[in-house]
Every structure is written in structure tokens, then in C-alpha cells.
Amino acid sequence: DYQDARELLEDCRRKLISIQKAEEDKKREEERQAEIQRKEAEEKAKKNKRIVMMAAAIAVICIAGYLLMTYVIIPNNKYNAALALMKSGEYEAAIESFEALNAYRDSEEKIEECQDGIMMNKYNAAITLMDSAEYDKAIEAFEALNGYKDSDEKIKECEDAILLER
User: Fold this and answer.
1) Are 91 and 118 in contact (CB under 8 A)?
2) What's the rounded mean pLDDT across residues 144-164?
């Protein structure tokens, strides 16, 4: 009961309560800030995950498009161009185009068909020479065919025709 001890005690209790309340408020505020930061981090992680997923999807689409262009569309267009050359009788150019396709589809068979077309053109040219009685030139043309079809027999026919002319 000394002088104002009761008032001072009461004042100390109020200050203590005030300090405790301030510490509790500070602790709650820190917890609230930590929760906010945790939620922000979760949202950021979700956003980053979405970005990564979209980037991965775009990369897959780009790679698929590249592969489709490289291994299907471009070779198919080149193949069709080579077929057009072949059909128009441009066999040498068609062979070069088919060879550049590196065995795409049946390009190896088409090369053989082109080579056969070249031989057939040479054979027909030799027949034309033979029919126009240019036997020496026809013989040379048939010999260049190296036994293609009946070119050996045609050589004999030309030789017989030369003998008959003399």
C-alpha cells in the first residue's frame, strides 16, 4: 500500500496486457503474411506449371508439324513432281527426282520404269531408223541397247536388209 504502488501496479498490468496484445497481434500478422505468401507461391507455381504445359504442347505441335512436313508433305510433293516428269516422258529428270527421294514409297520401282521408258524410246528410235531404211544407223542404235527386247534379232534383220540392197 505504499503511496501510488497500486496505481503503478495497475499501470504495469495494462502495459503488460498491451505488450502481450501487441505481440499476439504481431504474431497473427506474421502468420497472416506467411499465409498470403504461401498462397501467392502456390498461385505462382500453378501459373508456371500452366506455362510449362502450354510451352510443351506448343513444342510438341511444332515438332510434329516439322516431322510431318519433312517426312510426309515435302517428299510427297517431290514424288508427285517426279511422277509428272515420268508421265510426260522426261525420264532422265524423273530418275534424278526419284533418286533424290532416297527410296521414298516406290521410287526405286519408278526409277526402273523410267529406265525402261528410256530404253523403249531408244528402241522405238532404232525401229524408226530401220523402217526408214537407215540400216547402218539402226544397227548402231540396236547395238547400244545391249540386248534389250529383240534388238539382237533386229540387228540381224538390218544386216540382211543391207545384203539384199547390194
Assistant:
1) yes
2) 94
